[in-house]
Amino acid sequence: MRAPDHKIYLASKSPRRRELLRQIGVDFELLMLRDKLPRGPDVDEVVRAGEAPEAYVARVTAEKAAFAQRVMLLRRLPERTILAADTSVVLGDQILGKPGNAIEAADMLRLLSGRTHQVITCVTVQAEEQAWHATQISEVSFNTLSERTIANYCAGAEPYDKAGAYGIQGMGALFIREIRGSHSGIMGLPLFETAQLLQQAGRTIL
């Protein structure tokens, strides 16, 4: 019987990441970063000129973890290990973020239709002054999508809080002909890599 672990802070709004952490028995509290402020978001998620997709995901994730640590200290919260993650859907060198509306969602799905794209997820675990990082890259092959399928999918709520405008854990799974990589990584938190990082930070999983 293992001893209970201390809680960590999850610096993410993603319900999928919460679900995945619960799946492996990690106890956590949310430490939310703000993305809509008069002065702008807490972490700049705009792609910089010449920034490669993998470098972009790694930078944003590291900045989320570092900012969450500053928030923890400023608010005088109990000091805990922090986990942050970021996921991008990438077609060639083009990063597909979260669609703002049905037109953007449909355009993204048309781009992905019948093609293979990458899903890049980076995870950072921050404990005091030390940080551990891991990046997981999966390849996802879509079937060819009809305009009717795209329209019906975009009429629901599923595409709008997900990079690339689809969710593998929902109806979007019907689009996927093949994956090579990590199912949980495509959802937003690769569990193998996450467990390895937490163990490096002294958090026993099993």
Structure explained in plain terms:
There is one protein chain. By secondary structure, this protein is α/β, with parallel strands linked by helices. The chain contains 6 helices and 7 strands. It has helices spanning 15-23, 53-74, 102-112, 147-154, 183-187, 191-200, and strands at 8-10, 28-30, 82-91, 94-96, 116-127, 130-142, 176-180. Strands 1, 2, 3, 4, 5, 6 and 7 form a 7-stranded mixed beta sheet that branches. The longest helix has 22 residues, at 53-74. The protein is globular. The N and C termini lie close together (10 Å). Mean pLDDT is 92; it is low at 1-5.
How is this fold's topology laid out?
Blueprint: E1 8-10, H1 15-23, E2 28-30, H2 53-74, E3 82-91, E4 94-96, H3 102-112, E5 116-127, E6 130-142, H4 147-154, E7 176-180, H5 183-187, H6 191-200
Parallel strand pairs: 1-2, 1-3
Antiparallel strand pairs: 3-4, 3-5, 5-6, 6-7
Helix pairs in contact: 3-4
CATH level 1 class label: Alpha Beta
Count helical runs.
Answer: 6
The CATH architecture designation is Alpha-Beta Complex
Biggest β-sheet description: 7 strands, mixed
> What gap, in angstroms, lies between the N and C termini?
10 Å
What is the helix fraction of residues, given as a range? 25-40%
What is this structure, in a nutshell?
This protein is of the alpha/beta class and 206 residues long. It has helices spanning 15-23, 53-74, 102-112, 147-154, 183-187, 191-200, and strands spanning 8-10, 28-30, 82-91, 94-96, 116-127, 130-142, 176-180.
